Amino acid sequence: MPAHSEVLAFDMDGVLIDSRESIIYSLNSVLVPLGYSNVDVLRSDLIGLAIVPMLNMLTDNQLDARELAACVSRYRSINDEIGPKKSSIYKDIPRVLNELSTRYQLVVVTSKLQISAQLLLRSFDLDKYFVGIFGPEKDGEYEPKHRTLERSRNLVFRNLKVSTEIFALVGDRDTDIEAAHRFGILGFGALWGYGASGELDGADISFNAPSDLLRIMNRNH
Question: What is the CATH number of domain 6-18+87-220?
Answer without folding.
Answer: 3.40.50.1000
